[in-house]
Amino acid sequence: MEAVCVENLVKIYHGGIRAVDGVSFAIDEREIFGFLGPNGAGKSTTIKCIVGLLRPTNGTIRILGVDVGKDPGVAKRSIGYAAQETAVDDHLTGWENLYLQGRFYHLSQEEIRKRGEEVLRLFGLWERRNDLAQTYSGGMLKRLDIACALIHRPRILFLDEPTLGLDVQTRTAIWEYIRKLREEHGMTIFLTTHYMEEADELCDRVAIIDQGKILALDKPGALKAALGGDLITLKFVSTDERLPALLSAIQALPGVRNLRSSPDGIHWIWVEQRGDRLIPELVQLALAHGIQVDSVRLKRPTLDDVYLHYTGREIREAEVSREEHVRARILQRRVRR
Ligand SMILES: Nc1ncnc2c1ncn2[C@@H]1O[C@H](COP(=O)(O)OP(=O)(O)O)[C@@H](O)[C@H]1O
Ligand SMILES: [Mg+2]
What we know:
337 residues; four-stranded antiparallel beta sheet; binds adenosine-5'-diphosphate
């Protein structure tokens, strides 16, 4: 069964802003699925519609086969949600935050004790459970926030920008925790991000979203492969009149799409698919022509290139930094208070 199924979701805010403009996708159980897009793309709005915090203008949402519009209760019990801004209370300890969350879900004391320990250990916070949240680092706050979203053992977890504004090390640590949720608990995870590496490293499939529309949806590898193959950069030790013959021979190799040479002796070779398989052949061909290879470099298309291809621009860094800045300030204030 599909964990989440969204069909033609539309959300128009008061004032006519079309934040989500006919989005459809399905997430399999145990999948880590990502929405990648810049600030204002409609990621948070989509998540809020799915978890039932916003009423969609149009479209259907099914969670584990149940239509959310018709039966919101069933869906709500199966999902956990950690918002873009953490909902942790600074004046409470980690344990108290978790306890409160458990009570919201009407769990018994015993259940909270058991599951609370489980999630705090899972997220590496057990030792710090009795410290006030205001003494936690940004990464710990985010982990506590996610832990709180897990207290009722949801089958599907929604994470809105789980690593926004965190440093790279803390970010990779959070990725590990997210992977663990899937591996050890079979959880389905939907996350939003505007970090390329996050989508690339963590997600089984990625939807590229911009201006309320999904522009592409596939495995990160497939998205990159669809752009075309690799780029090989070649330099020779010394060249002479034998070079033109070599270049023609390279161009005639199966799998070579295009070849361009710079005046200072750098040759770029675009290949159909996997450049690594072609490299030994290139080197042998050069040797057969009596020319030695000085250097070979292979570059795979990155998700950056994919994003650029579909949106016609890079993720708007200026806006991203502003958002990150605000978030960093919120975290700092938390820590200082
Ligand atoms: N409560 C709101 N009322 C009106 N417009 C909103 C509201 N929330 C978000 N928007 C607008 O909807 C669009 C999508 O926002 P959002 O879903 O937050 O994007 P993202 O999470 O991808 O940054 C943006 O243009 C944003 O300004
Ligand atoms: Mg958002």
